[in-house]
Amino acid sequence: MGVKHWWNRTDSRLLEALLGLAVLLDAVFGVVLPVLGVTGLIDPVANREVEVGTVSRLTGTVSDPAGHGMTLNGTRRAELVLAHPDLGQRVLLVLPDVIGSLFLLLVLVLLFQMARTLRGGDVFVPRNARRLTVIGLTVLVQAVLSPVLPTLTTALLVRNTAVAERIPFTITFSGEYILLALLLLALSEVFRRGARLRADTEGLV
Residue 40's pLDDT is what? Predict the structure, then answer.
């Protein structure tokens, strides 16, 4: 009687298709469309959700009287709206999301490459260990940049405007993503040791 494997070629194809679809969707909606908005080929992003300070909590709408076409609407979680953003403002508005999408795209491509190794029935190969290391480092860098970029770009957007004093410059890091990055780096070491053990075992046969 043959042994039934828990993973077969159909499963590999399905996983590769799902990851390929995720790569395509992230590339289109996370990178291409925002860039087209910056160039003016489609409607650009003209708003961003921001957090206003407790002391200056909004009760309505704050407009900039200097003619920058900028308003701040909401309460604690407010919406910064630019009536007619110029090229530099459009870049600042989409920059955090585009960079985040590029990091996600890198992770998805590496996962797709790892999924292809399942066709051979063995994921413990040296290339997968290196890929997991890159994924772990990518998540770690993104854990640092994710809270920094929105705050920094928002500060640049509202600089020298009346709404600037309403939006505090605060950065809060999430320990969850840092922990995830460390777990991925530890998993990459497991893969590296597994690949080395498999190579040593094959050498004894």
Answer: 87
Residue 117 CB coordination number (10 Å): 16
Please count the residues of the chain: 205
Within 8 A by CB and 6+ apart from 19, the residues are 108, 111, 112, 115
Q: How many C-beta atoms surround the C-beta of residue 198 within 10 A?
A: 14
Domain ranges of the chain: 9-41+85-204
Residue with tokens 């997968």: 128
pTM equals 0.83
Q: Which residue has the tokens 């970029």?
A: 149
Task: Give me the residue label for tokens 């969707």.
Answer: 25
Query: Contact 99/145 with Cβ under 8 angstroms?
Result: yes
Low-confidence ranges of the chain (pLDDT < 50): 1-4, 55, 59
Q: What pLDDT score was predicted for residue 149? A: 95
